[in-house]
Design brief:
Number of domains of chain B: 1
Number of domains of chain A: 2
Number of strands of chain B: 0
Helix content of chain A: 25-40%
Number of helices of chain A: 12
Structural class of chain B: mainly alpha
Structural class of chain A: alpha/beta
Shape of chain B: elongated
Largest interface: A-B, 31 and 25 residues
Oligomer: heterodimer
Shape of chain A: elongated
Distance between the termini of chain A: 44 Å
Strand content of chain A: 25-35%
CATH superfamily of the largest domain in chain A: P-loop containing nucleotide triphosphate hydrolases
Number of helices of chain B: 11
CATH architecture of the largest domain in chain A: 3-Layer(aba) Sandwich
Strand order of the largest sheet of chain A: 6-7-8-3-9-10
Chain lengths: ~325, ~260
């Protein structure tokens, strides 16, 4: 399959000392959704700025849609669409005017432009608001307009920089559907940055976790999660049987480690579903009664913890402290 | 062709806002109107100083037009700062739009506003009893104002792209406006000001504009001088546009 994005060893330093990118390499297959996941300040947005020709890398090279971003930025710009973190629309202008100006920037004019704008308004459910100033739009409507603008010229590669930040759950779910539809039906290549683990897990077929300007791990979400060696079996116990239960599980086949937090017992198993009967039998044999049993598949949270060496939330807070 | 078209589209952004709120143009005119009325009354006695020729309103009007051009166009960068902060500029920069259109479009809008404002101020001056030499002369005054507006609009965009803070731009515009005005013959006849101010005013573009505009519209100096001054102002407008384009580049480098 063709590569839509290839980046090799990108570096970028700000103000002579802040190393935003410390050697990022990634490849994205055409027609797939690639997730760039990491806390604020990890280097996701800088990567997008370089790949979308907004700024140049200090070192390394990148090709987008087969074109070098430094050597021929104009050709790259024609092939890409960008939906930035901030709203890119002119708030004093109407939705229709914003879309029209966007089209003009890509050399689309006349009847073709009018038709595309009309279709975009329809598709993103903005027909009624088309001739209202953007400043009257809700957050969800503005985001839809942003995406509509990014897609007007039918790009082959779409960059979505934190597309659902600040959206309410309903608007977020709608945005997810739209993103999935773009990749599936229009065979668009999408590079998505997010600091929502759930978003990356749900949308991306391939993802890279970025931390402090480096990619710490890369792979398909399922692959990354299986790499953690198994699932967690959570057993909630009656109060008096907790200690007995911990001892009971020590020798059970398939269970790799056991941890007790109060009355919740967490057993790690390579194949959780297969180990559950043996776990329940062992508990039963020692007379420990279980109130509930739950099988937890490993989350990206744990993947992040494992590879970045700190919890996702913790990393985000770190950065905010530094910034403050 | 695409470049011209895209520039015009960027200009139209501003024009549409103006058409929706024409009152805004009136608000921006309050200051020059006050100058015209206030300075006109305040300095009326200047005409009695030996060596001063003509009526003060005739003398003052071109000066006010030029001040108006500088102060009005000087705020152009505020729009750019807003665009940078809201993400509009970045969105434009990742499109294949001709780079120059971003500056040229907003400069053209500033020039159009100044032309409209100048026309209104000239009508007011006429009502106050100013005498213009000829219609052609008045057009030259408008052209001078337009060139100066283009210069300061580019200058303002350039500062905005580098500083990206309203406060800095407000400081820069205020810092430049009054000295450039008072170190020119906008308000006071050149022969009546101290020698050092005369020297400074020789290299002050605001003074080039004032003298060229006054000479053409009020008919007291030769057309040769007017031609040279127009050429200088056009060159300056180009230099300012180059400065703005470079500032855009340095903005992009800093991303």
């Amino acid at each position: 399959m063709a590569l839509a994005i290839e980046a090799h060893d990108l570096t970028k330093t700000y103000g002579g000392s802040v190393r935003a990118l410390d050697g990022i390499s990634l490849t994205v297959q055409a027609g797939t959704i690639f997730g760039l996941l990491g806390p604020n300040g990890a280097g996701k947005s800088t990567t997008v700025r370089i790949l979308s020709t907004l700024t140049r890398p200090d070192g390394g090279s990148a090709r987008v849609a087969g074109v070098d971003v430094v050597a021929d930025p104009v050709a790259v710009r024609r092939a890409i669409g960008v939906v930035g973190q901030r709203h890119g629309a002119d708030r004093e202008a109407t939705g229709r005017e914003n879309l029209t100006l966007q089209g003009e920037f890509y050399g689309i004019t006349g009847a073709d432009l009018r038709a595309r704008v009309a279709r975009a308004l329809e598709r993103f459910d903005l027909v009624d608001a088309a001739d209202r100033k953007v400043m009257t739009y809700s957050g969800g409507m503005q985001r839809r307009l942003d995406v509509a603008m990014g897609l007007l010229h039918r790009p082959r590669v779409l960059f979505l920089d934190e597309p659902t930040t600040g959206l309410d759950p309903e608007a977020r779910a709608e945005m997810w559907e739209e993103i999935q539809r773009l990749a599936e039906e229009e065979e668009m290549t999408i590079l998505l940055t997010t600091h929502y683990l759930e978003e990356a897990d749900r949308l991306a077929s391939q993802l890279a976790i970025v931390d402090r300007g480096r990619i710490v791990v890369e792979g398909a979400p399922e692959e990354l999660k299986s790499g953690l060696n198994g699932d967690t079996i959570e057993v909630e116990l009656a109060r008096d049987s907790a200690l007995r239960a911990e001892a009971a599980l020590a020798g059970v086949r398939g269970v790799e480690s056991v941890r007790l937090d109060g009355t919740v017992l967490r057993a790690r198993a390579r194949d959780g579903a297969a180990a559950i009967p043996a776990v329940l039998a062992a508990l039963d044999a020692r007379g420990a009664s279980a109130r509930s049993v739950r099988l937890a598949r490993p989350s990206l949270d744990e993947v992040y913890l494992r590879h970045a060496g700190r919890s996702f939330r913790g990393a985000g807070a770190d950065i905010e402290e530094v910034a403050a | 062709m695409t470049a011209v078209r895209q520039t015009w589209q960027v200009t139209m952004r501003g024009v549409r806002v103006l058409i929706r709120q024409p009152a805004f143009l009136g608000i921006t005119l309050t200051q020059p109107i006050i100058w015209l009325l206030l300075f006109g009354a305040l300095f009326k006695a200047i005409t009695r100083i030996p060596g001063f020729h003509g009526s003060y309103i005739d003398y003052l009007t071109p000066g006010i037009v030029v001040m108006l051009a500088v102060s009005s166009a000087g705020w152009t960068g505020m729009g750019l700062i807003e665009d940078i902060n809201s993400g509009v500029t970045d969105r434009m920069l990742v499109s294949p739009v001709w780079r120059g259109a971003l500056n040229a479009g907003s400069v053209l809008y500033a020039v159009l506003s100044v032309i409209i404002q100048t026309a209104l101020i000239l009508l007011l001056a006429l009502a106050l009893g100013a005498h213009f030499s000829s219609f052609g002369g008045v057009l030259v005054l408008v052209l001078v104002a337009a060139l100066l507006a283009a210069t300061f609009a580019s200058f303002s965009n350039g500062i905005a792209a580098i500083a990206r803070q309203r406060e800095t731009l407000i400081g820069a515009v205020s810092f430049v406006l009054l000295p450039l005005t008072f170190l020119s013959s906008a308000l006071m006849q050149r022969s009546l000001v101290p020698g050092w101010i005369q020297t400074v005013s020789d290299v002050n573009p605001v003074n080039w504009a004032v003298e060229a505009g006054r000479s053409a519209a009020m008919g007291s100096i030769g057309w040769g001088l007017v031609g040279v001054r127009l050429g200088l102002l056009a060159a300056l407008a180009l230099a300012a546009a180059t400065f703005a384009t470079r500032s855009f580049r340095s903005y992009q480098e800093s991303l």
